[in-house]
User: Fold this.
Amino acid sequence: MTENVWILGIHMTPFGKRADKDVLDLAAEAALAALKDAGVTMRDMQVMGYGNLRGQTSGQSLQKQIGQTGIPSYNVSNACATGSTAMRAVMMSIKSGESDMGIAVGVEKLYGAGLLTGNDVGSGPETWTPKGRNGAIKNLDGYIGTSGMAGLFAQIGMAYNNSDPRANFELFARISEKSHSHSTLNPNAAYQNKMSLEQIMNDPMIAYPHTRSMCSANCDGAAAAVLVSESKLRTLSLEQQRRAVKISASVLASDPWTEAAQEFPDVSTVTRNAAIKAYELAGVGPQDMNLVELHDCFAAAELVHYDNLQLCEPGGAIDFFNSGATWRDGKTPVNVSGGLQSKGHPIAATGIANIWEVATHLRNEAGPRQIEGAKVGMAHVIGLGSSCTVHILEKSSL
Amino acid sequence: MPIPIVNYLALEPQPHLVAQQCTACKAKVFGRHNACPNCFALDFTEVDVPTTGVLKTFTIVHHDAKGVPVPYCAAVIDCGGMTVMGNIIGVDPDPEIITRGMEVQLKTYSLGNDAEGVEAIGFGFEPV
Assistant:
């Protein structure tokens, strides 16, 4: 058996418009606070994992700001799962025995970024010239389906359970109503205002059935985690041991072959596979989850992931949501942080930020939004392509 | 000679889509592949995709990159077991009109001429 790995310290910066900070300021803010939370310094770190998709920075550039000790940096790029993949790189280093403590950082500045697939397709070429593996003569967005994320995830949601007609505009809007309601208790969320169902449905339509407030919010933010091996943790103070959070499962998966997914993204199969493996590794089941942070990049995504993560009966996500189970006072609270639509989605930070949210509840440090008595929780992230991480975390029993 | 928007749209004798089928496992994909993503075999043959299908899911895009005409309906169509992405054309992009499960048919349309007078042909699906 390889060594168990624990979270010793973890931090998420406030998400939102952080105009006074550049990418490295935000990364440093998260990293220094995570180290302080862990009660250690850069001198104790033996490995770094780093993710920043849009800012072109590296772990090395962060080390120049917070401490250069010559440790390796794994600079990773894995779509929306970038932060959690960076954390997993640190974890694998510890599991291999090469290091016993390391730090992972995810950071992004996205405030005002607009469409992440590009904001201008230009006027196109003067002569039609086939390009790429499909011999496309122009940008296909808008001509052969959409490459916009709001529209892709709208179709994923509308296809739920053999295109169940109950997976509709109002249902998805009610899921967003929950998220925005939860965000009112999260001082780190980019948007903390409650929104009525009417307000959400009357917001500008981005891609039916997703209005603006049903889409993840582009914002600035960073998150960082200090990981430690179990044997090292046992040499640290009782207070550090008490606050440490156990990583009971950490799974990273890519799409397996399915014919349908060659043309149209399939976020379900990869999530389902990762979740099955995570439950198996952790020795717990969906019914044991006291809270779940799942990748609700768009309202429709949340619905399909109830099912993919097995939080409900197969095909039962609509009834599950309608039962109130995923509200913070329900059986399986989902996205009590407010989720990506209100907390915000600084892409490379999200994978660690979701883990921070769950860890903070397990430490009983979540303030007004604390899920009382939380002992086990899950953090799920998926990036189109697809890459998926599922982490199951447990409260310390040391 | 008109040019298709993508190389998997064949214009003759009647417009239709062409998939690459793995000779070993019969998996079908669009576009050039180095090997079969299902069974890793190296050889493909071309097979025609049915021009009618069932609309599985859709969205109506109202906000897109500058230069893309909105609103439009993007959809996923099951054409005889092959998943195809395409726009629903020939009807208003209205969720009251477009419904999951409706039968659709491949149609082509002109994307205009380039500087040398070559016409490009796009495709979409119309309700039957």
In short: Residues 23-38 of chain A form the longest helix (16 residues). Chain A touches chain B through 54 residues (CB under 8 Å). The mean pLDDT of chain A is 96.
